[in-house]
Input
Amino acid sequence: MPTPVRLLILAQTEPCFSEKYVELVCTAGMTPEGRWIRLYPLPKRVLSLPDYHKYNFISCEVYKKEPSNDKRPESYHIIAESIGNVEPLGDSKKVNWSLRRRFFEERNIPVYTRKREHRWIFDGRVTNDDLGR
Output
């Protein structure tokens, strides 16, 4: 049974061709509660879907396909026609990094800020030692 979700889109792959699905993309997002959702397959350019981009919220319906070879808990199938209510995070006319950063900080997710000596630095909340680097 499909479940309605609201997602902040955080990543999309380039479209690839598939014999089974024609053309599709893999899309990842996060719910307002901070749960990762991976949507696959999504025939984004084949259907006339609302246009959405990274850092847009979308509403859609998802479901777990059973049985499935994909055992990742974050993987869901999407009812592509259910995509709606596309809203940017903040003002759609400009990039607002502080709003993007706040979205993650409010969910206690480390924010990458810079790279130095090939090590990731996370604002002091997570150290290189914590990451095993």
